[in-house]
Amino acid sequence: VRKKDQHLIAQSRIYITLEPCYHHGKTPPCVDLIIKNNIKEVIIGITDPNPKVSGQSIAKLRITGISVVEGICKEECHNLIRPFIKLMNQKSPWVHLKFAKSKFNYMAAKEGQVWLSTPQSKLYVHTLRSDVDAIMIGTNTAKVDNPSLTTRIVDGDHPIRIVLDRKGELSSDLNILSDGHPTIYVTSRERTLPSFVKLLIHDFDHENQLEKLLSKLFKLKIFSIIVEGGSTLLKSFSNFNLWDEITVIDTQHELNSGMKAPNLNGILVKRTYCDSDVINNFRKNN
């Protein structure tokens, strides 16, 4: 706020999605700043699910005489911060499954890389990447596609790449193991890797191995993940109900053989037409 306009702050009403923070973290509590600036009314969409806050800021504001209105657009605000709510309640990353498929329901050729979607959809994909902490692929996707999994077409940070390689057999020449961008290499055996690659030893034979892996990633401060495949990895997350959001890009590509796209179910919440592609976004019913 410009200095000459700061006297208007005390006459203002503030609208916020989430209850203002109450505890000291990297910065002082937001609630104290609101009180300090004598803002007379605060409109809050949803109470903070963080137990360190959980209604305490609302109580503090009211004690100081500030008017507080709760629950405005509550459902919309809840949907907006679903990843944060899961983070607080379940201590597990938000998992977003994503894949493209041809008009014949195939997602990959038998051999070699095939790009199914349009350049406009590619822009959408890179926007998704810029918004998450990490992007995960399996061994076959790393071998066949040799992807970089970086954010390029749009501005934004590169996600941390997570590659699952049970047998530790991937070539060190692959982009994700040689280009210098942060990578987490998940395998069952020790292996010498470049300094930018973090080795994460994991028991792939454990009954709840994916759930265990998500717990490990949470402890590494990975709070949101896009899983880009392949089909086996996507199905595994679906079968164990370890997903929160699915994006399926329906394309007009003529690919009619190779790897079938998984049949994943959810509630359609958004459909976007992107040139000849249709981008469908699904979520769980919870």
CATH class of the largest domain: Alpha Beta
The tally of beta strands, per DSSP, is 14
What strand line-up does the widest sheet have? 9-8-7-6-10-4-11-14-13
CATH-level-4 superfamily name of the largest domain: Dihydrofolate Reductase, subunit A
How many structurally independent domains? 2
How big is the Rg? 22 Å
Structural class by helix and strand composition: alpha/beta
- Major sheet, described briefly? 9 strands, mixed
Task: Write the element-wise H/E pattern from the N-terminal end onward.
Answer: EHEHEHHEEHEHEEEHEHEEEE
Any overview of this molecule?
Helix 6 (about 140-145) links the parallel strand 6 and strand 7 (about 160-165). This protein folds into two domains: about 5-80, Cytidine Deaminase, domain 2 (3-Layer(aba) Sandwich), CATH 3.40.140; about 90-285, Dihydrofolate Reductase, subunit A. It is built from eight helices and 14 strands. The radius of gyration is 22 Å and the shape is globular. The mean pLDDT is about 90. The longest helix is centred in the middle third of the chain and has 12 residues, at about 120-130. It has helices at about 30-35, 55-65, 75-80, 80-90, 120-130, 140-145, 210-220, 230-240; strands spanning about 15-20, 40-45, 65-70, 95-100, 105-110, 135, 160-165, 185, 195-200, 225, 245-250, 260, 265-275, 275-285. The two termini are about 40 Å apart. The strands form three sheets. It has a nine-stranded mixed beta sheet with strand order 9-8-7-6-10-4-11-14-13, with helices on both faces. Strands 1-2-3 form a three-stranded parallel beta sheet. The chain is an alpha/beta fold.
